[in-house]
Amino acid sequence: MDPLHAASENLRIIRQLMERATVYRAVSGPTAFVAGLAAILAAVSGTYHWWDTGGTRTPFFETWMAVLTLVAFFNTLLLWRGARLRGEALFTQGFRLAMRALLPPLAVAFVFSLVWQTHGGDDHWSACLWISGYGLALLATRDFAPRSIVRLGGAFLIAGLVLALARHGDLAILGSLSSHAAMALTFGLFHLLYAACVPWKIGEAARQFSGNQSA
Predict the structure, then answer these.
(1) What gap in Å lies between CA 136 and CA 126, rounded to an integer?
(2) Taken in order 148, 193, 81, 100, is the CA torsion positive or negative?
(3) pLDDT (tens digit, 9 = 90+) per residue, 43-94?
(4) Which helix (H) or strand (E) is 33 found in, with range?
(5) Of 65, 45, 168, residue with least CA distance to 114
(6) Predicted confidence (pLDDT) at residue 177 exceeds the cutoff of 70
(7) Of the candidates 117, 112, 107, 127, which has an alpha carbon nearest to the alpha carbon of residue 183?
(8) Sign of the torsion formed by the C-alpha atoms of 17, 18, 24 and 29
(9) Other C-beta atoms within 10 Å of 69: how many?
């Protein structure tokens, strides 16, 4: 493909994604709520089994991979619903462009944490890696995502770096946070705060987008 044509096509897709910002913001609200709630529950159950008063710990890596799978499935359902309301396919060029932005930081965080966990590494550093990697993934969408998502990414990146530096320097409360507490603070609290600040009207957002397209 001609480089100029490829660049023009990418710009066209980015413009389409920017036009869908209202739709994506509406989808991100309920997804953030589910992610935040699931993270809080996972942090509690990951520290101690609810049914086991003996304090047996659950595997950190497996617990949070299960949360990721649940949230990813829920978000896919919402994206599919939004695409259906707009009369579009789910796996569009814009979707693939968004995945190309999101997946590299997430893949790096996943692979490094997997290797770290396999070799008996401290769960806290895996948490810092996931928090920072997720923040970088959201920031990678800054050319076409709503500003609220980009700001959320910045908050995650800063939090991940601060938690890592605090642990490295053994700084007061932040440095002594458990891995599950760090995940609850970020993936739990940050997502719940985000969900409280954005609209959830997926159908209305899709209709508004369709109206703008036909105008």
Answers:
(1) 15
(2) positive
(3) 988 776 544 444 445 588 888 999 999 999 988 887 777 677 666 766 767 6
(4) helix 21-47
(5) 65
(6) yes
(7) 127
(8) positive
(9) 10
Query: What does the DSSP 8-state code read for residue 120?
Result: T
Confidence (pTM): 0.75
160 with 131: CB under 8 angstroms? yes
* Residue 87 zone, left/alpha/beta (φ > 0; ψ -120 to 50; rest): left
Give the closest residue to 186 by CA, choosing from 165, 156, 212, 166: 156
**160 phi/psi in degrees, rounded to 5:** -60, -40
Amino acid at 194: Y
- Indicate the burial class of 116 (C-beta count within 10 angstroms; 0-12, 13-18, 19 or more): middle
70's tokens: 């649940």
Tallying the residues shown for the chain, one arrives at 215
**Hey, what are 185's tokens?**
């603070």
DSSP string over 159-192: HHHHHHHHHHHT-HHHHT--HHHHHIIIIIIIHH
**CA 133 – CA 98 distance, rounded (Å):** 16
The pair of structure tokens assigned to 17 is 């994604």
CA distance 145 to 98: 9
pLDDT tens digits, one per residue of 137-160: 999 988 777 788 889 999 999 999
Q: What phi, psi does 71 have (nearest 5°)? A: -65, -40
In angstroms, the CA 124 to CA 177 distance is 8
Are the beta carbons of 30 and 209 closer than 8 angstroms?
no
